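Internal ticket #5521
Category: modeling
Description: The requester needs a full-assembly model to guide mutagenesis choices. All entity lines are attached below as received. Residue total reported by intake: 592.
Assigned to: D.W.
Attached entities:
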Amino acid sequence: MSIDIDTARKVAKLARIRVEEAQLPKLAEQLSGILGFMEQLNEVNVDGIEPMVSVTPMRLVRRRDVVTDGNIQAQILKNAPDAREGFFAVPKVVE
Amino acid sequence: MSANTWTIAAARDALRKGEITAVDLTMSCLTAIDAGDALNAFVHKTPEIALEQARAADVRLADSRKSGGDAPSLCGIPLGIKDLFCTKGVPSQAASNILKGFKPEYESTVTTKLFGDGAVMLGKLNMDEFAMGSSNETSCYGNVVNPWKIDDRQLTPGGSSGGSAAAVAADLCLAATGTDTGGSIRQPAAFTGITGIKPTYGRVSRWGVVAFASSLDQAGPMTKSVRDAAIFLQSMSGHDPKDSTSADIPVPDFEAALTGDIRGKKIGIPREYRMDGMPAEIEALWADGVAMMKDAGAEIVDISLPHTKYALPAYYVIAPAEASSNLARYDGVRYGHRAQLSAGDGITEMYEKTRAEGFGPEVQRRIMVGTYVLSAGFYDAYYNRARKVRALIKRDFELAFADGIDAILTPATPSSAFGLGEMANADPVEMYLNDVFTVTVNLAGLPGVAVPVGLDKKGLPMGLQLIGRPWDEAGLLNHAYVLERAAGFVSKPQKWW
């Protein structure tokens, strides 16, 4: 399975990573190489095998649905690149 | 010998007896760190925190002496902390520009436990960006240099925990935390002649450790001896309600398990680990290791782990898939870097520019591979197939252990340390081959330990790996202890930095 330039552009878009047009051929080539390496998996007979979902057999525990902290707005916003009036600020998303 | 060269075990005994203070011990490490800048291992030094913690440890040690008890083993022990661990108020960047300036408002469970036992944090250690790399060349802080040197080349300490490995090998600290997703503790440990253990998945809490691939990530200690690994792992381990995959089972006394007696134990030698093109020296080292275990009274058994060959391709589907999901959180909104925007840029441009600027090339590549294998139409062909192969890899080990195998002995790496920059023009896949002996252990969730066993002809350290049964770190460490004693590896890098 080789990745063409259109697919590379689409993957970059889905990943929300800007890739300049000039870089797309190299990206497509590298992704193709990595995916080619993965093709080996097609040699394995996986009939009747369930995909592994949990590393160690354990029941996922549930926590009590209670508030364990709160009133830490300043701490939550402390590392934000742009925080205003108690909110995370982002470019306008509604026209 | 200057105190920074001591093991944890030796320092613990001296601290308890009052033969040295935690402050003096810490000072000797801080001096070594300042003299070790050429290694580029410590990227955020925290001497004020270290000295404050050391003074508190001295009070605690004195109180314990007065009351006739023992302070915890790590009380007053100066450690380095991998940059992947969130440490309150101290930069925690995962060696990425996208987390530039990020100072967590909270402390990871692992560092909370270490500090609770009185450990001292000397600073944060360099690593591959988001732990993605096997040579420490993807870090936003620049390369770490291996303290081992045989000519005028600079060598890689391995990765991703390369800063931790270099710092321990160069005696900048007594020990360091590492994390291991595909070999990131064991490969750098082997490249620098130190000991590193990746515990069973779920033994150590992942809370507050920057996530790479959540079903594979485990933190563990990197130390100067197997006994130190046992002491350090004891403090890191245990159930944490904040990590739903952390196991609620008792933690045995790892140090007490170091009896040195493995008579009658069955050591499996997997034939599939005998790779084509494996250097003769690695093969000879492996044979030496087998002889050492046999001399100690263990029974050597040839075993088969038939799906070994498929571990790397399965890993390089599963790990990027999980990474693409985990790293979606770096969006320039809540923390870290945000790109400068142009007039008219909307939120999509903000995401795309921020992530293009903040992530390095290897991280971008893995996110995109992960995005691709999870995308509509390819999910079954790649991701689900890889998870099925993962189930088969895990079953290989289960069958071996069901046959009575106690531990499995393999090489740790396919070579000794290589030169920084030597792989710059290589295909990304060639770099991935470094993990060929270690990834199986992460896929199966098992504990694995790398032990230094010898030097190659060039004079560089080489290690062997022991793989244990799930939750049997105690037994595994005892096997490692036997190997360590038999190998008698005492070489240290010649100081050039």
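Resolution: model delivered.
Comment from assignee: Chain A has a mean pLDDT of 92.
Ticket closed.
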